[in-house]
Amino acid sequence: EMIAKYQWGVNKVMGGLTQEEMKEAERLAEEWRKAKPLAEVQAKTASQKGEKYLKEFAEEMWRQCGMRVAVLTAWKDGSGQTMTTQ
């Protein structure tokens, strides 16, 4: 039900912005698109979700394309130590 009303809510908010507010929102959105998370956040996400994301990607490539995917991963943990999958 909430998803069904999402676009309506977005349109309501966006429609109520002044031209100046809209320019600021666009500037901020562009800034966020170009920025990357802090190293600590990247490390936490990689360790907690990386394997799951890769598995989902590999399964989807097999389902959609009939393609097998092999992935070798490495990332820095919060202390800068290089980590790898086992």
Summary, kept brief:
With 86 residues, the protein is mainly alpha-helical.
Notes on the structure:
The chain is mainly alpha-helical. The protein has 2 domains: 3-34; 39-84, no CATH class. 62% of the residues lie in helices and 7% in strands. It contains 3 helices and 2 strands. It has helices at residues 6-15, 19-34, 39-65; strands at residues 74-76, 82-84. A two-stranded antiparallel ribbon has the order 1-2. The N and C termini lie far apart (42 Å).
Q: Which helices and strands occur, and which strands form pairs?
A:
Elements: H1 6-15, H2 19-34, H3 39-65, E1 74-76, E2 82-84
Antiparallel strand pairs: 1-2
Give the helix tally: 3
The gyration radius over C-alpha positions equals 19 Å
Give the neighbour order of strands across the main sheet.
1-2
How confident overall, as mean pLDDT?
A: 90
**Model regions low in confidence, pLDDT < 50 over at least 5 residues:** none
The string of secondary-structure elements, in order, is: HHHEE
Number of spatially distinct domains: 2
* Strand-pairing-aware structural class: mainly alpha
Sheet-strand content, in percent, reads 5-15%
Percent of residues in helices comes to 55-70%
Shape: flat
The tally of beta strands, per DSSP, is 2
Biggest β-sheet description: 2 strands, antiparallel
Through-space gap between termini: 42 Å
